[in-house]
């Protein structure tokens, strides 16, 4: 068998990527309307779209984060809420979208940027934008799978079968990369004017980078408290997302790009996604005013779907309102609300982040209420009825963050794994022995990079969805 057949999917797809193809035609035959080398800005746009859409997609074929957190139920085809991750190859599909369609385009953009005419200060800021976006995608990959190809990935001319790096080692390197790249940025100079997140505003990219660093730091809290504390405090001191207008949002125009929830609930006419009983019952017990904005009523009451089982027809349950169904709704992948809850958690852990846990808890709940259009009076009433509980702070912050992260699947999954609140019960017909703590590796890696993926699976204790990540030790 030729060696090319043994190439890892990561390397194979990169080697074949059209974005890196070079034309061997003479300059007389060049078509200026169809360049052989794409501008780095175009490659960035592709990576931003692919990563944002597929991190946020509720499709049963991809990340399944909303099912891992038991916030969405299915009424017709319950395989995904029974944690079947084989039939539809979700691990493979998400792996490909993040590696091949997202990071590969960032890597190529970095290479192409070197040959573009640009002033040095703008070039440095553009390179920083690409680096921060790449780090953000890596964080999603590591927190989805654990150990993954990292240091040897994206080197198809040198390494055909990249090793799987230790997840904590990747974490440490990502934190270093964030520190290094922030130091290069001139916030008074723009980056990519056409970037689809911040339109070249490097002050916002710095805040976003620090917010990713905050995420990484909090996740380390139980496994490496000293590094966690230093990382979190440094991130907050450097300046994190502090308002909704600074949040990392991919905005859809409803024509060229449509919001993935719209695509899956409206355009696909899929009438079987519902808020779960756990969501409805929890929010009802707290008299949560967001319910009126998010969900419809059935017979004058809210009724959640049964998670992991076929039940009554779709129309017998509360449904997601038009609030979530707009084709132009943004994918809010690192929200101000999330950052506020991360700071509240940091304070509860004894970190110095600019306020007490009670103060930051109230600020986080308020941020969620504002984000969802709840009035100040209703917000005040909610906080009075549901104050911060210092004795059981993991339950207090965990449940409120879980509610606030509704429809923000990946962010929500990090909170539930780290804080173990609310308590998620494995459904009776589950394909697993517990709720998922990670996504298994792509099945194609076992064909194309078998030695390394098998070594990784053995190292982490088995390539199972029930194997916990290195930072999820409780």
From TrEMBL:
What Gene3D superfamilies does the database record attribute to this sequence? 1.25.40.390
Name the source's superkingdom.
Bacteria
Q: Name one Pfam family in it.
A: SusD-like_2
Ordered alphabetically, the record's keywords are: Signal
Signal sequence, start to end? 1-22
Which organism encodes this protein? Chryseobacterium vrystaatense
Q: What protein name applies here?
A: Susd and RagB outer membrane lipoprotein
Record has Signal as a keyword: yes
